[in-house]
Specification:
Helix content is 11%, strand content 38%. With 185 residues, the chain is mainly beta. Strands 3-2-6-9-10-5-4 form a 7-stranded antiparallel beta sheet. It has a 3-stranded antiparallel beta sheet with strand order 1-11-12, with no helix packed on it. A two-stranded antiparallel sheet has the order 7-8. It is globular. The chain has one domain (18-148): Electron Transport, Fmn-binding Protein, Chain A (Pnp Oxidase, Chain A). The two termini are 29 Å apart. The chain binds flavin mononucleotide. Residues 20, 33, 35-39, 53-55, 58-60, 83, 87-91, 168 line the site of flavin mononucleotide.
Length: 185
């Protein structure tokens, strides 16, 4: 027997354990906006891609449409307060970087900056967009993945002992548990 669960009015309980990230975009006025996003997934293939679902009414969506690029900055469990603030305030009338005490550093390929407090930053340029009801699915090329020095393993990869993303599942937040397998799954 199985039961169909309630996914919430806006599908808020659809997320089954995805990393929470801040999407950073440079605005035309030179201000950087950040917003919390749980609807981001990398896409496999010979070209590295990433898809991000952004609600059309959000300022972030307007900025991505203008700029054609953004940066995905992974959050960590100690950044839950930042996730809450950047996921409820609008960048139209709030400088969320100032409110949250976040700082930026330049990206390599895009004008939108990396958020320094986030240990992983992914530079994305928009390839195409799919309009779906009240959401835009931005499909991008990944131009670079930056990892903070203490999260790297010295061999061009991530130090998995340090890897602690903030996960979002069924409306709640979690830490990643222990590794249970290696490359052979
Ligand atoms: C846990 C969490 C997950 C969220 N996930 C998304 C998401 O996947 N896509 C989205 O567009 N907004 C998402 N939001 C909502 C935006 O972060 C929120 O509407 C924000 O205020 C938008 O800011 P902006 O208007 O400056 O872009 C999420 C918020 C929270 C708290």
């Amino acid at each position: 027997m199985r039961t169909v669960i309630d996914t919430g009015t806006y599908g808020e309980y659809l997320h089954y354990g995805l990393p929470l990230a801040l999407v950073s975009v440079l605005g035309p006025d030179g201000r950087v906006n950040v917003s919390t996003n749980a609807s981001i997934t990398p896409l496999p293939g010979s070209l590295s891609r990433l898809a991000a679902g952004v609600l059309i009414d959000n300022y972030t969506n307007e900025l991505i449409a203008k700029r054609g690029e953004f940066v995905v900055n992974l959050l960590t469990p100690d950044m839950r307060g930042i996730a809450r603030q950047c996921g409820s305030l609008s960048g139209v009338d709030t400088d969320k970087l100032a409110v949250c005490g976040l700082t930026t550093t330049p990206a390599q390929h895009v004008a939108s900056p990396l958020i320094e407090q986030c240990p992983v930053n992914i530079e994305c340029r928009v390839d195409t967009v799919q309009h779906l009801d009240e959401l835009n699915l931005w499909i991008t090329r990944i131009l670079a993945v930056h990892v903070r020095k203490d999260w790297t393993n010295g061999r061009g990869g991530v130090n998995l002992a340090m890897y602690k993303p903030l996960l979002y599942a069924f409306g709640h937040t979690f830490e990643l548990g222990p590794m249970v397998g290696h490359s052979g799954i």
